[in-house]
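DM from R.C. (forwarded with permission)

"hey, sorry to bug you on a friday — could you get me a structure for this? deadline for the figure draft is monday and I only need the backbone to look sensible"
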Amino acid sequence: MGKSIASRFENIDIEKSVLLGVIINDDELVLEMDFCLDPAHADYEQPGEGEDCCFHPGMLKFAGISKLTLDRPEGGVDGKKRFDITEFSIEGSRFDMRSEWGDIHLQARSIRVLTE
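My reply, with the result:
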């Protein structure tokens, strides 16, 4: 049996993590992330000078999407490459996130957390 959604985020602080990019393919959405790892995470390293977190690259992959809404800010994001996350929630197959990139709301059959 697979891990629960909550356990997949163990030792990852999503609201301190950073969104790097959004990739949409057919019925799949991939969020490229810099995850903020807690000290108990297996890939944790001491944060670099001037950093609050141990940032580690990874992805959130959503497959079998049945509903998807992307709300982008008017005027774009002015060449920004790292986007702060202000709200994040997963409830069953529903996912909602607010960030500087924009708001993402979706329903998906599969939600995977991958750290590189």
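R.C.: lifesaver. Residues 15 and 85 are 5 Å apart (CA to CA).
me: no worries. The mean pLDDT is 87.
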